[in-house]
Amino acid sequence: KIICISYMAEGWKKPKSLIWDSKQDDKKLLNEFVKIINQYPIVIGQNGDSFDLKVMRGRTWAQASNPLPDVITLDTLKMSRQNMRLTSHKLDWKSRLIGRGGKMSTDFQLWIDVEKSNKKALTHMVKYCEQDVLELQAVFWSMLPYCNRLPLHLGALILGHQDSCPGCASTNRIKNKTRQTRTGLRQQWHCKDCGRYWTDTRRIK
Questions:
Q1: What is the pLDDT of residues 159-171, one digit of tens each?
Q2: What is the pTM of this model?
Q3: Which of 57, 114, 141, 185 is 20 to 30 Å from 176 at the Cα level?
């Protein structure tokens, strides 16, 4: 079962959390999160594609809850693996690499104590999950300008056009230089907000 789900929308000061009920049933938690996730065009997670979303789909099916919507995802594990050669691609390591505190320490005993209805353990579990969300947010925005291989154009998705940064959706951009490709001359841009460089997919006429 899912003990808690911690989440955070961009612009919030701190995460929020959903917790299983007093009977350790996660059906209400799942139904609430399905409504929440349906509000956003993009979901960001660390190993979210292979773990978090699959676990939630399995639990919604087992609980006959409302199924998760089909969402666009950005997975920081895939992003770092596809764009960088690092010593480790774990969230804790990437967080510490950029000078943050990393994940909270925990062990298997915490899960045992939570299942025994230990309130102090449950509080620690929620703090652990919320800390993960904060580290994920910091790692994602720090790493984004250095990831040329993204599954989507963020600006086009959020603003509805490509005249913006594909990494942070900012329109605060300047021309950098032109690039000659096999299919024609293309403009390279530089984002003044996140620092990203990219080449326009459209040919210069």
A1: 777 788 888 888 8
A2: 0.81
A3: 141
**C-alpha–C-alpha distance, residues 129 and 127, integer Å:** 5
Residue 150 above 80 pLDDT?
A: no
- CA nearest to 104, candidates 85, 121, 87: 121
Rounded percentage of the chain residues whose pLDDT exceeds 90: 63
- Give the integer Cα–Cα distance in Å for 71 and 183: 33
Confidence category of residue 199, pLDDT binned at 50, 70, 90? confident
Cα separation, 43 vs 34, in Å, equals 12
Q: How is residue 92 written in tokens? A: 């804790």
For every residue of the chain, DSSP letters joined together read ---EEEE--TT-SS-EEEE--TT---HHHHHHHHHHHTT-SEEEESSIIIIIHHHHHHHHHHTT-PPPP--EEEEHHHHHHHH---S---HHHHHHHTTS--SPP--HHHHHHHHTT-HHHHHHHHHHHHHHHHHHHHHHHHHGGG----SS-HHHHHHSSSSS-TTT----EEEEEEEEETTEEEEEEEETTT--EEEEEEEP-
Q: Is the pLDDT of residue 190 over 80?
A: yes
Torsion over CA: 149, 151, 153, 154 (sign): negative
